[in-house]
Amino acid sequence: MEAIVYYITLPFIYLISLLPFPVLYLLSDFIYFLLYYCMGYRKAVVLQNLRNAFPEKTEQEINSICKGFYHYLCDSLLETFKTLTISKKTMLQHCYFHPDSLAMFEQLKAEQKSIIMVMGHQGQWEWAGNTFGLLGPHKLFVIYHPLHSKCFDGLMLKMRTRFGATLIPMRNTFKVMVANRKTVNATTFIADQTPMPESAYWTTFLNQDTPVYKGTELIARKMNITVVFARSRRMKRGYYELSAEIITEDPGELADGLLTEMHTKKLEEDITAQPETWLWSHRRWKYKRPATYAGF
User: Fold this and answer.
1) Around Cβ 265, how many Cβ atoms within 10 Å?
2) What angle do CA 224, 186, 108 make, to 5 degrees?
């Protein structure tokens, strides 16, 4: 059944990817109307997440961010499909590096320093991988969760690797990083996914008790590898700027939990500055902090 759905859907996905951007965003507006006004897709989840994250905001402000998020969600989905056929030139026009950040990566490469890049589900993270694959001086690895559907997983692999990235299933992260330790590379961790509560590091994020994967910090410290926080900021509809900053070049010297606190705080600051471009429909706070939690 999955294969039937896939082969029925695939021509429409390719057709969407071929649409000129003005037509693409007209289609996005129509999908927004269906999702927000007709289906109410996860609207209760989004509104509750926003109210909990920003208790100081009025209900009018919350509803405004909510609408902005649904517009962004529809844009982001169709922009991701666009990756199937977009040219390199057009990709770099719509998702580009801040010159200072590109220079920073080039300096790290010149110093033969591999890096861990930490980022969240904000802006256009799919396009960020494409742009880094085209312009970034490091060989790019991206950690991902394989989809349950093999057909659609293959499609996502095609889109995400088209411009030079290599995908690593999450369970193989450390193994692949060790195998490639003699090359100068960048491994990207999406750090705002939801781990099981018993194995997580717990912190306060967006005004709520939040579990965070420990793996980013544990691997960074074990390999003593430079950690960079990367962000994708929407400048206007369909255009994103990538920037980055070094969090630490010596994670082994940091106290337990400090690196996790640092990259989580940076993501929180970015979300607060541009809240409509984060993935609020994700059930980020579905778990409670264990009563026996004792720290990192």
Assistant:
1) 14
2) 75
Q: Which two tokens stand for residue 125?
A: 């993270």
Dump pLDDT digits (tens) for 34-92.
999 999 999 999 999 999 999 999 999 999 999 999 999 999 999 999 999 999 999 99
The CB density around residue 129, as the number of other CB atoms within 10 Å, is: 28
- pLDDT tens sequence across 157-208: 899 999 999 999 999 999 999 999 999 999 999 999 999 999 999 999 999 9
Give the DSSP per-residue string, the chain. Answer: -HHHHHHHHHHHHHHHHHS-HHHHHHHHHHHHIIIIIII-TTHHHHHHHHHHH-TTS-HHHHHHHHHHHHHHHHHHHHHHHHTTT--HHHHHHHEEE-HHHHHHHHHHHHTT--EEEEE-SBS-HHHHHHHHHHH-SSEEEEEE---SSHHHHHHHHHHHHTTS-EEEEGGGHHHHHHHTTTS-EEEEEETTS---GGGSEEEEETTEEEEE-SHHHHHHHHHT-EEEEEEEEEEETTEEEEEEEEEES-GGGSPTTHHHHHHHHHHHHHHHHSGGGB-TTS-TT-S---TT----
Q: What is the dihedral of CA 168, 107, 230, 187, to 10 degrees?
A: 10
At position 132, the amino acid (one-letter code) is F
Query: What is the distance between the terminal CA atoms of the chain, rounded to a whole angstrom?
Result: 44
**Separation of alpha carbons 276 and 233, rounded Å:** 11
252/196 Cα distance (integer angstroms): 25
